[in-house]
Write the structure tokens for this entry.
Amino acid sequence: MNSPRQTACNAFTRKSLALPALLVAALGIHGYHYGIEDEAIYLPAIKTHLIPALYPHDRIFFEPQTKPMLFDELVAGLVRAFHARVDVMVFALYLLCLLLLLAALWTLAGRLLPDARARLGGVTLVTVLLTLPVAGTCIFLADQHLHPRTPATALILWAVSMVLPGAEERGIGWRQVLAAFALIAIAATMHPQMAFYGALFVITLLLPSIRTGLWLAAIGCLLLPVIGLWLGAGSPDWIEASRTREQHYLLRWHWYEWLGAVAPIFILMGMARLARARGMFTAAAVAARTALFTGVGFVAGLIITIPPQMERLTPYQPLRTLHLAYIVMLLLAGGLLAETLLKERPWRWAVLFLPLAGAMTYVQLDGFSGSRHIELPDGRAANDWVEAFLWVKANTPVDAYFALEPHYMSTHEEDYHGFRALAERSQMADWDKDPGVALLFPVLAPRWHHEVHALDGFSRFTRADFTRLHREFGVDWTVISRQEPPPGIDPALCPWHNRSVMVCRLE
């Protein structure tokens, strides 16, 4: 029989070997992209700390969302400290945050699952499915770009592991509880919304009984209508911004997204029974509490997203409780599969995980069909749009103000790359990211509405339309998805183009 020291040494060795291997697997399966999706908000905030002169016209569309966080200040500080390029530091931090998430999953698996094989199975399943959509919430378990949600999730999972008794422990002490909420507080500096739901999850795990949880949940759900009526109805501009976010409205979800919201409740209840039958009492208790947490989030989502009177509460997205529920569910599923089916048969592991990995990789390649699967910080443009954005960065004044098609991020093979993030120039409001900030901060809704509707019919704009933008908003440049100048625009005013995109100066 191994001594406790030798057992601990073996566990450390397994973890030291497994985590880097899982990190490489995650990068290979899910890829990496720079400047996409929510980085259209976070990267401009980071770059503003480094070069204050950037974004003189439009920083109002990202600063309010990032001010409550320390994430952008932290990244900017590391860029300064290491004298690194922003893209290099962001890639390094992406790998570090992914590694922290895997380490947190491993720690939590150690509390829930009985042996190393089960832990490896659980963490491997989550790793392979990191970019699995969480029902209709429009988020993944972890993003394929640097996002503050990833380190916040890691901190929350460590907090969860602290309030769970280990195999040789009878319970937990107040110091562990305080440490858990300290981690939640740190997570709040990264992503306040994630930290809020993480705190609720930890509280759910600490409740003396599920019945107590049900009573508290009922009181909370009864208070929601009071809060909604107190906030009142949103302005027409705010409502228009809010309606761009279909993930906030359950009645707009597809049937399979509803299934993805409801099925975890019953799956987790089944896992609780199976784990209890196998003597895995901590796992059984966590599965049952997670089912409760998921069910309450779903009911709160029904209350908030269906009655029009509650629309002001939709930005709080109670269905994001599914994010933590999915992680726990998949971690337990992988562990139970390893215990009951995979065992010590490598071919069984291969039969399960290789097709899953292949399917997830295919989805990422298809979703980013115009870009490299792994956009390394090597200075090469990911696609035609990114090439245009990089030209703009290098060849236009810092105070240049651009007009782009409001849906440019969802253009074919643009692949959701953000103009502000990569070009480092101001732009008029868009339909993809800016309404999300406007609905969080209603005072911005009128400006967003005014600018985005000034761009209606952008693909048919002529010189007169661009002159109007220049006169009314001060816009002096545009990026357009065409190879010829718009009607009436002198070709000499369009100094750059490639096969898909053209950059023109406005007068």
